[in-house]
Design brief:
Blueprint: H1 2-23, H2 33-39, E1 46-52, H3 58-62, H4 72-78, E2 80-82, H5 94-103, H6 107-110, E3 116-119, E4 124-127, E5 130-137, E6 144-146, H7 156-163, E7 170-174, H8 177-184, E8 190-195, E9 200-204, H9 213-221, E10 230-232, E11 262-264, H10 273-279, H11 283-299, E12 309-315, H12 317-325, H13 330-353, E13 359-364, H14 373-378, E14 383-385, H15 387-402, E15 408-412, E16 415-418, H16 420-426, H17 430-441, E17 447-452, H18 453-458, H19 465-472, E18 482-486, E19 490-492, H20 504-507, E20 511-515, E21 521-523, H21 532-540
Parallel strand pairs: 1-12, 1-13, 2-21, 7-8, 7-12, 14-19
Antiparallel strand pairs: 2-20, 3-4, 5-6, 5-9, 8-9, 10-11, 13-20, 15-16, 16-18, 17-18
Helix pairs in contact: 5-8, 11-13, 12-13, 15-17
């Protein structure tokens, strides 16, 4: 009997222990504090938005075997790679792409219809970021500054700062003013760009009354002039460049030569604007941009606070070089390989300082680029359309129909602007003027389409992807009376090569997310850089930008982030 009672007591005690264990926090599913800390979703400390100017998607596939481990390869293997991302607006120029990047909106909504456009009120060309009401800081004394005043609506950075009473820090950096200013939005902590007249990073009084002390210190301690006389040689053995056209290709054109190696001295052996102009077309300029980005992270303590910060960095040298040498050159190949190494170093820095597990990186490009027209023509594709051929065809047709007069005030951004005073004085019907001019444009060899302002305002457009792309890039107060589109592989203008069309070589760019909350993989569904902003907003649990048109790339999100 005693033994039986002891057994019953042991069973009762064991049962009570099990009940107590079940009711305890540990029994309810909580883990050891260390385990819990490991399992909890990490807080995003920093979002780094990277744009590589004039960077086609196929650069990632053509040169993938030549990349190192820590740059593009890291993103391609461990990131969410959207392989079919295309801009859905025309024109595909730098300002348009950078405005879309963090606003999620097309030019029709954010108002940035080009790098520059004709302003009907002032009757002159203006740039996307020109602002006579602010002064330049850090550059030539008395210089006019720049600002995002022309951009409509908000960006991810603006919404981030709205969400926490400006506790988040937002900074934009690039060699180009528009590429620094537009992604950072209307209410950042600062935007910085390179002034090639002084060789310094500058800003404007839109952001503050004087440059921060750390920027002045950087300009003093890390002058761009240290690259004077530097030699740019090929990174890899010659065999690695056989996939590109010959190094001394007759299609290329530049003041600084056509073959490696290059001595960076401006061609005049004198420090000054000519040197800085050449410097901006070399990998050293991207290296310098990355160094400034690191200085911003350290001195602004980005990623060190309780709130998520945002840094946008645009690498402009790829574009400034690509216009001269084209996408199939040794120069562009080597620039791509060196950009890979620069990114690898930058990502390693981010990991050491902040932790990549606490970071979201998103990489894209503002546009692609077409092949040099003469190269394409020799391969039985396309050719070149002089701008003058278009304006003369329009002028002659309107003179014949309505009488000789000054009909055109400007042709910029592949937009034709008519003289309003001429139309009013002659009492002609604007829609008829547009129709006659459009018909004339389509007779010019190499022209593929022409859309009128009347068509776009009334919505009377053909059911065609190019028409939708043009409509997405049209903002009536700033766009022209005609928007012209070349046939594939035809280039309008005199640049060695360029971009701006709705054709795939200009629209197809990388969209890659990496880091906290991202499910790695290769995603084939159609997407767009306009999807970046709403996706970031979803990851950060903030209101998306005011005029976004893209979708949330939900297939790549793990939904495990903690704000």
């Amino acid at each position: 009997m005693l033994i039986h009672r002891l057994r019953r007591s042991r069973i009762l005690i064991a049962y009570l222990l099990l009940v107590l264990l079940a009711l305890s926090p540990a029994g309810c599913g909580a883990k050891h504090p260390n385990e819990s800390a490991t399992a909890q979703p990490r807080k995003v400390r920093l979002v780094v938005g990277i744009v590589i100017d004039q960077f086609r998607y196929d650069y990632l596939t053509r040169f993938e075997d030549l990349f190192g481990e820590g740059g593009f390869r890291r993103l391609l293997h461990d990131g969410a790679v959207f392989t079919n991302a295309n801009y859905i607006h025309t024109p595909t120029f730098t300002a348009c792409g950078h405005a879309t990047f963090m606003s999620g909106g097309t030019p029709a909504l954010n108002g940035i219809v080009g790098n520059e456009w004709y302003d009907r009120e002032s009757k002159q060309k203006v740039t996307s970021v020109s602002d006579s009401s602010v002064q330049l800081l850090g550059g030539k004394e008395g210089g006019t500054g720049a600002s995002p005043i022309k951009m409509l609506g908000s960006t991810v950075g603006d919404q981030l700062r709205f969400s926490n009473a400006d506790q988040s820090k937002v900074i934009g950096i690039s060699l180009k003013d528009r590429s620094a200013i537009l992604p950072a939005g209307k209410h950042p902590n600062g935007a910085y760009w390179f002034d090639k007249t002084t060789g310094t990073f500058v800003s404007s009084t839109y952001y503050f009354n004087d440059l921060p002390a750390w920027v002045k210190k950087f300009n003093q301690e890390h002058p761009a002039s240290k690259y004077f006389g530097a030699k740019w040689e090929k990174l890899l053995p010659e065999a690695a460049y056989q996939r590109s056209q010959p190094d001394n290709s007759s299609y290329e054109w530049s003041d600084f030569g056509k073959t490696f190696p290059y001595t960076v001295n401006g061609g005049v052996d004198k420090l000054g604007a000519r040197f800085y102009e050449q410097f901006e077309t070399t990998p050293f300029a991207n290296e310098y941009t990355a160094a400034f980005a690191k200085a911003a992270i350290e001195n602004e303590k980005l990623g060190q606070g309780e709130q998520t910060d945002l840094l946008t960095v645009s690498f402009s040298a790829n574009d400034l070089l690509g216009h001269n040498y084209g996408p199939y050159s040794h120069e562009v190949e080597d620039m791509t390989l060196r950009t890979d190494r620069i990114l690898a170093d930058f990502f390693s820095y981010l990991d050491q300082r902040i932790g990549l597990a606490n970071t979201i990186i998103v990489l894209t490009a503002d546009h692609g680029v077409g092949p040099i027209p003469e190269y394409a023509r020799d391969l039985k594709f396309g050719g070149r359309v002089p701008s003058k051929a278009i304006t003369e065809a329009i002028q002659q047709a309107l003179d014949k129909q309505f009488g000789p007069d000054k009909w055109i005030t400007s042709f910029v951004n592949n937009n034709v602007y008519f003289d309003d005073e001429t139309i009013a004085r002659r009492k002609t019907d604007r829609a008829e003027v547009e129709r006659v001019a459009s018909s004339a444009v389509l007779k010019v060899p190499g022209m593929g389409a022409c859309f009128t302002k009347s068509q776009l305002l009334s919505g009377q457009l053909p059911i065609h992807p190019i028409a939708r792309s043009v409509a997405n890039g049209f903002f009536a107060p700033r766009s022209g009376d005609l928007i012209v589109v070349s046939q594939p592989f035809f280039l309008i203008g005199n640049d060695t090569t360029s971009h701006g069309t709705p054709h795939s070589y200009d629209t197809h760019v990388p969209v890659i997310f990496y880091g906290a909350g991202i499910t790695p993989g290769s995603y084939l569904a159609p997407s767009s850089p306009a999807d970046i902003a709403p996706t970031l907003a979803a990851l950060l649990k903030i209101e998306p930008p005011s005029s976004y048109t893209g979708r949330i790339l939900s297939e790549a999100l793990t939904a495990k982030l903690q704000q």
